[in-house]
């Protein structure tokens, strides 16, 4: 009984494998797993679209289904007038987060030994989720300003000027909630699985792992949906 407890005590949060670049330190394990995710996405897109057919089948059918799903998501959240230009951004967010989350749940990273820390999903690192959230914030500011010009900032005093502090605070809390929701859910899932595997290596962790696969997909959908909703809010006309 003592050994499993000692293994649980060794489950750590925030240990990273760093690469030295002059005076800077880079999170090596995040870059490695991010490159794995990008390679998977590139391979699927190239294989699915390298030999397009009028009647899609196989992998082309799958990639076209994903594209249509993302188009419908963007159209629902942003609106029919403006959604087309934002399909690539929403789609990139959704696919990167989806594959990143599933890579942590499905790929056996733990069998690969590195000098310090361990390999895990890119979204298991707060730096990745904050970067994605900041990109989302920049995108909806850009969407609003590009469509309305400086008139976009009227929203801060709408419907009344005394709401200015609340509306400004809302824009600061959006990236915080986006990043911590995604990071917290993925990290919690991996920690729970790690603890259960230490306690009961067989059978018991499997339902939690399957639940983690499901929640990983849901988190990708939630992030992409909220990003689309924020962009839609920025470009909508207020009367």
TrEMBL record:
Protein location: Membrane; Plastid, Chloroplast thylakoid membrane
InterPro entries: ATP_syn_F0_a_bact/chloroplast, ATP_synth_F0_asu, ATP_synth_F0_asu_AS, F0_ATP_A_sf
Alphabetical list of SUPFAM superfamilies matching this protein: F1F0 ATP synthase subunit A
One matching Pfam family: ATP-synt_A
Glycoprotein in keyword set: no
UniProt entry keywords in alphabetical sequence: ATP synthesis, CF(0), Chloroplast, Hydrogen ion transport, Ion transport, Membrane, Plastid, Thylakoid, Transmembrane, Transmembrane helix, Transport
One Gene Ontology term of the molecular function aspect: proton-transporting ATP synthase activity, rotational mechanism
One GO location term (cellular component): plasma membrane
Domain of life: Eukaryota
Quaternary structure and interacting proteins, as annotated: F-type ATPases have 2 components, CF(1) - the catalytic core - and CF(0) - the membrane proton channel. CF(1) has five subunits: alpha(3), beta(3), gamma(1), delta(1), epsilon(1). CF(0) has four main subunits: a, b, b' and c.
HAMAP family reported for this sequence: ATP_synth_a_bact
Family designation: Belongs to the ATPase A chain family.
Function noted in UniProt: Key component of the proton channel; it plays a direct role in the translocation of protons across the membrane.
Name of the protein described by the UniProt record: ATP synthase subunit a, chloroplastic
Source species taxonomy: Eukaryota, Viridiplantae, Chlorophyta, core chlorophytes, Chlorophyceae
